Amino acid sequence: MKDSIQTVSAGADHKLSEQDLAEAKAARYQAGKSNSVGRYIWPVCALALLLAVNLLLDASFFSISYQDGRFYGSLIDILNRSAPVALLAIGMSLVIATGGIDLSVGAVMAIVGAVCANLLITDISVFAVIIIGLSTGILAGVINGALVSYLSIQPIVATLLLMVAGRGVAQLINQGQIVTFQNDTFSAIGVGNWLGLPMPVWLVIATLLFCQLLVRRTALGLFIEAVGCNASASRYMGINDRHVKLFAYAMAGLCAAMAGMIATADIQGSDANNAGLWLELDAILAVVIGGAALTGGRFSLALSIIGALIIQTLATTIIVSGLPAKFNLLIKAIVILVVLLLQSEKFRNQCKQLLRISARGDV
Amino acid sequence: MFKQRYLPLWITTSLLMVLFLIGSMQFDGFASSRVVMNLFSDNAFLMITAIGMTLVIISGGIDLSVGAVIALSGVATSVLITQYQWHPLAAFALILPAGTLFGALMGTIIYSYRLQPFIVTLAGMFLARGLATTLSEQSLEIDHPFYDFVADFGFELPGAAWLDLSTLIFASVFLLAILLMHYSRLGNNIYALGGNEHSAQLMGVPVKRTTITIYAASSFLATLAGIVFTFYTFSGYALAAVGVELDAIAAVVIGGTLLTGGRGFVAGTILGVLLMGVIQTYISFDGSLSSWWTKIVIGLLLFFFIVLQKGLNGKPAKTITSH
């Protein structure tokens, strides 16, 4: 009798758990679905809202004119100006997805700028200069990656090293001067245009496409997310987490090199003190606005680019609205705080409770 | 264990001695009490900030906002004195608690919403710089009898050295910090928190109160450092003290504090600042070396000490990056 009861109850448990599992599975798929839609909705809405505010402030904001073989307009301007941060954000997304952070990208921009400017003065072909510049960026990234993955140094600290020493190295290359050059082919990277759009925008599009294909059409993206979620677990699964991290930091270095070249080509000179100053913070901010988890494991390259666009649009909005530019930092700080708090589950629950209380009050 | 614990301290001390000896042998006037006292008075604001950073790092966190808080404190002080004709002491009485509150807010956000200290204090950094630029974009010169009094205040030491108010303020902060960290319950709580937050909570450490106190203390010290900085520059400027947070972190690491928290000494941090100061003094005495070498040498030193920390800890922490 006892036995039969037990088997019956066990059978019921079994059935129940299977049902539960199926439900949980369905819920998980649903959650994943709604989550991925929600992930894209909020940043895109924020960007649309900002653009709408601009349209209200200035009716001609969306107008784009075609002149001398290129497009002109505020929107093109935003795209063009956000290019360095967008490039950095692509690399930063990969690094943050592995659970790391790269504080050195601004300093790497300065180093690459200094290397390129000093090589352009000599008689080396522009092509070789670009290759050497990109390699310098990759080398810097590999140094960061090696410190993080092989010496197991915390990412903040490992990349802080290059952030502190990097500007010194750039100044050493420049001998403390601002090195200027005259080279139309190289300047084209910063100020040229192709098919009507500025060159930096094309660079961002190309890098985004390349990385997106690399990350989403091969297993690499999955590896990066696995390492970011749990490095030891992914190691037991047979993923070489060290190589994955090394790759992420090398890509961040490569992106920083491109951003550094744009900045250098833009002013036709290398200023070791100011090139890329504080851009690492903007890049991190872009990735955070894009909804990536700072703890790693979740990222979207496209959303990070939207984050970079939001930052630039915000700066433009402040100028268009006639507010003094000095409010830029303050508004940026408030935006980060709000985005951060929204990422916290507790804060969202508190907000929901507040909403419920006010709803009850209405009834 | 006893030896290992103090090893980074010994290395920093010997490096400091060796560099100082090399300097004294190479240049006349390097080994004078004047140079030593200048090391203290020039770096007083950095030392005060770095003491706060030591507390934060020992607790396992990081505070990137200190440089911006120094600038904000300086600008707010000069605005109150020059534009609103406040007496400096009254201005300090308002600014110090306000700065402390700023840190307490960051601590609350970090604890309550389980956000990373790194990103919250980064937002705090933007906020403080933004507030400072909103208050005044130009550098504001302070011209007040009290500041003349502060500039003249001090004690003559043998060897034409001068013990000024900034150094005295630093010395009292230093003593208080040592008492706090090594002889009070709060100090024990901070070490416990840095060792392992979860175990600390299970042991009955008031994690919330300690976290908030730590960030409040760091911002308080940064605010105080901002005031000391105005004694030094006689002005407040929103873009002052850019990158001081990095110098402070570097000093803490060179001083032998473990970046993952739980281990370290306030005294080590002071040695770290002094070492960086001696490097700078050496480079300025030499004259042929350029100032950017300072950054490179500090970077190399940082690297050396971080690798040393890894070596001393035995097995590298594998899960650090996944948190």
Question: How would you describe this structure to a colleague?
Answer:
The complex is a heterodimer of chains A (363) and B (323). Helices cover 76% and strands 4% of the residues of chain A. In chain A, a hairpin with a 2-residue loop joins strand 4 (193-194) and strand 5 (197-198). The N and C termini of chain A lie far apart (55 Å). Chain A folds into two domains: 82-322, no CATH class; 329-363. The radius of gyration of chain A is 24 Å and the shape is globular. Chain A is built from 15 helices and six strands. In chain A, the strands form three sheets. Chain A has a two-stranded antiparallel ribbon with strand order 1-2. A two-stranded antiparallel ribbon of chain A has the order 3-6. Chain A has a two-stranded antiparallel ribbon with strand order 4-5. In chain A, helix 4 runs parallel beside helix 6 (155-174). By secondary structure, chain A is mainly alpha-helical. By secondary structure, chain B is mostly helical. Chain B has one domain (2-314): ABC transporter involved in vitamin B12 uptake, BtuC (Orthogonal Bundle). In chain B, 73% of the residues lie in helices and 4% in strands. Chain B contains 13 helices and four strands. In chain B, the strands form two sheets. In chain B, strands 1-4 form a two-stranded antiparallel ribbon. In chain B, helix 7 (165-183) packs across helix 8 (185-195). Chain B is globular, with a radius of gyration of 20 Å. Chain B: This is Sugar ABC transporter permease YjfF. Chain B: It is found in: Cell inner membrane. Chain B: It comes from Thalassotalea mangrovi.
